[in-house]
Amino acid sequence: MDGQTSTDAPGFVRTRGMRFPRHDAIIQGKVRRLLRTNGYEAKESEAALRVVREGDVVVELGGGIGYMSTLVATKRAVKSVHVFEANPNLIPYIESVHAVNGVTNAHVTNAILGPRKGTADFYIREPMLGSSLEVLDGETDPPSVKVDVLDAKSTLQDIGANILICDIEGAEVDLIPQLDLTGLRAAIIETHPQWIGPEGINKVFRAFMDAGLAYYHRGSHGKVLAFRTSW
């Protein structure tokens, strides 16, 4: 439960029954504190545990530290989970988290999804989890890497995903309306109104409603929005 402190195993930070290897550049400060008190991604976790079912095929956009993919794989026995993470420095860590938690049905790809294949600039920052596709106000020539952009429509079709989990630091306003969402049973989106504004939030809502998914209040909390079909 949130607010309860987990006991760390040697070499790991433990949370909700999952283990996260200690890593000085990734598991630090606020991230470590929230993991230890089961507060990390608490709203997203509650939403996922409400909507994800055994046998689902999950696509996660923005893999972070591998938390959500590990959660749904270990708590809901999904058929598979497909993680797309833009930051190449996080890929080995995500894979290590899956390994130590016995997750064998996860697939991790260093790429983002978009309207067509290509490449994009991804800006690397410290702490690592603050990296994004956008240049922030006040930044001048931040360090960046090129990341592959995969065709979103064909990628989702090939995977056969019926669940979408998305936390991509404001890029949702451009990406979500471009996706074919009609094959989804449910979606969990962390929105970023501080960057995309009310018009951006409306665009995200409209995309899901046009695809036949309705706002699900029991899975939504603040900036975390859940959508689902009636079946």
UniProtKB/TrEMBL annotation:
InterPro entries linked to this entry: FkbM_mtfrase (IPR006342), SAM-dependent_MTases_sf (IPR029063)
Keyword check for Transferase: yes
Name the UniProt record assigns to this protein: FkbM family methyltransferase
Entry superkingdom: Bacteria
Organism listed in the record: Sulfitobacter noctilucicola
GO BP annotations listed: methylation
MF GO annotations: methyltransferase activity
NCBIfam families, sorted: fkbM_fam
Alphabetized SUPFAM superfamilies for the sequence: S-adenosyl-L-methionine-dependent methyltransferases (SSF53335)
